[in-house]
Amino acid sequence: MSGGVDSAVAAARLVAQGHDVTGVHLALSKNPASYRSGARGCCSLEDSHDARRVADRLDIPFYVWDFAEEFHEAVVEDFVAEYRAGRTPNPCLRCNEKIKFAAVLDRGLALGFDAVATGHYADLRRHDDGTVTLHRAADDAKDQSYVLGMLTQAQLSRCLFPLFDVEKPVVREEARALGFGVAKKPDSHDICFIADGDTQGFLSRHLDDAPGDIVDADGAVLGRHSGTHNFTVGQRKGLDLRVPAPGGEPRYVLSIEPVARRVVVGPREELAVTRLAGIRPTWTGVRPDGPWRGRAQYRAHGVAQAATIETAGDTLTVSLDEPASGVAPGQTVVLYDGDRVVGSAVIAEAA
User: Fold this and answer.
1) How far is residue 165 from each of residues 10, 39, 136, 224, measured CA to CA in Å?
2) Which SS3 state, helix, strand or coil, does residue 9 take?
3) Strand partners, 342
4) Do 119 and 7 contact (CB within 8 A), yes or no?
5) Which residue from 350, 335, 94 is spatially nearest to 234, judged by alpha carbons?
6) DSSP string spanning 20-88?
7) Which whole-number Å values give the CA distances from 18 to 15, 170, 175, in the listed order?
8) Handedness of CA 306, 166, 119, 110 (dihedral sign)
9) Which residues have a catalytic role annotated?
C-alpha cells in the first residue's frame, strides 16, 4: 500500500472479494526526509500515514517493511551507474523488477502469503493449463503493463492486479464512497528518491563532474559541458551551444560517449532509428522461437510500434516498421502480441 488511491482501492476490492488481506507499506529510505514528500510523493512518511488510515478503515493488519538497503543498492545505485555509463535508466521499472515483485514477493511467500497485490493497471489472465498471461488494462490512459514487462511466469502466477478492469475516475469514486481520504490525492510523479525533482543536481552530487566537448557528427567542437550525465539522447534544451547550425535549425543529442567525455549533437532527423538491440531479455511465458511479428514499446507512456523481433541467446533484435526517435540505450523495450505482454529487454544499441 503506497499511500495512494490506487493501492487503497485495490486493497478494498480484495477485502470485498473475501481475501485475507494484509497491508504492507515499503520504507525505502533510512531517512524518509531525503526522498520526495507531500501529496506528490511515493513511499514517503506522509504516504505511510495515508496507507495506515486506509488499512484501519478496512480493518486489516498493516505493516511497514524496511527495504531501504535493497532499494538503495538495486535502484538508486543502479540509476547512478547507468548515467555514469551514458545510459538512460527507468528507476520505477527497476523498482518493480528488484523490489516490489522480487524482494517483497520473496518475503511474502516466506511468511505464508499466497500472492502480492498492487494497484497497477494491468490485466492478468489465468488459463486452464495453469499459465498466466499479462495484458494491457481496460484504461488505456493508465495502462501500466509496460513497467511490468520484466516479470516472469513464476512471479505473475503470484500476482494480483484488482484494477485491471476500471478507469481512474471510477477508482476515485470507489475511494470516495469508502470514505478514503486519498480519494482526491494526486498521482505520484517524478523520481521518489530525488526529493527536489532536480535530476541533474542529484547526479552531479553523486558523480564527479568531468567536463568535455559537445561535437557534431564530424567531430567539430560546438560547445562544452560539465559532465555527460547531464544529457540524454533526444535532448534539445540546455545544450548551450556556441556555434549555431548553418541553417539555424535546432540540434538534439544523438549519442553520449562517457569515456571520451563527448556529447554528439545533430539535426532531429538523425535521431531516427529502425533497429533496437536488446540485452538481458525476460519472458512472461515461453520464449518465442524464430522471428515473429509484434509491437515494441520503449517508453512507459509511449506508443507501441509494429516490429519484427528475433532472439539469439541472451540478446534480441527489434526491427521497427517505421522509424522511432529519441531512443536511448538503457531504456527498456517491452514486446507485445496484440495486447499481451510477451517479454522485455534492456536497449543496448539503437540504429
Assistant:
1) 11, 26, 10, 50
2) helix
3) none
4) yes
5) 350
6) ---EEEEE--SSGGGS--STT-SS-HHHHHHHHHHHHHHT--EEEEE-HHHHIIIIIHHHHHHHHTT--
7) 5, 21, 18
8) negative
9) 95, 192
Are residues 214 and 251 in contact, defined by beta-carbon separation less than 8 angstroms? no
Cα-to-chain-centroid distance, residue 198? 18
- Hey, what CATH topology would domain 272-350 get? Elongation Factor Tu (Ef-tu); domain 3 (2.40.30)
Q: Identify the residue with better confidence: 38 or 84.
A: 84
Please give the grid coordinates belonging to residue 224.
562544452
5-119+162-184 belongs to which homologous superfamily? HUPs (3.40.50.620)
- In single-letter form, the type of residue at position 168 comes to K
Work out whether the CA dihedral 74, 79, 82, 84 comes out positive or negative: negative
- Is 119 annotated in some ligand binding site? yes
Question: Distance between CA 260 and CA 62 in Å, rounded?
Answer: 51
pLDDT digits (tens, 9 = 90+) for 222-273: 999 999 999 999 999 989 898 888 888 999 999 999 999 999 999 999 999 9
Contact 244, 226 (CB under 8 A): no
CA–CA dist 27, 279 (Å, integer): 31
Bridge partners of residue 265, in order along the sequence: 253
- The residue type found at 7 is S
Q: Could you give the CA distance from residue 144 to residue 49 in angstroms, rounded to a whole number?
A: 25
For residue 103, give the nearest of 130, 75, 84, 123 by alpha carbon.
75
pLDDT at 70: 95
Provide the grid cell at 220: 567539430
Unique residue bearing C-alpha cell 498493516? 62
Q: For residues 278 and 335, is the Cβ–Cβ distance under 8 A?
A: no
pLDDT one-digit tens code per residue, 148-201: 999 999 999 999 999 999 999 999 999 999 999 999 998 876 788 887 788 888
Parallel, antiparallel or unpaired: strands 212-215 and 262-266: parallel
The CATH classification of domain 208-270, taken from the options 1.20.1440, 2.30.30, 2.70.220, 3.30.160: 2.30.30
State the pLDDT confidence band at 328, using cuts at 50, 70 and 90. Answer: very high
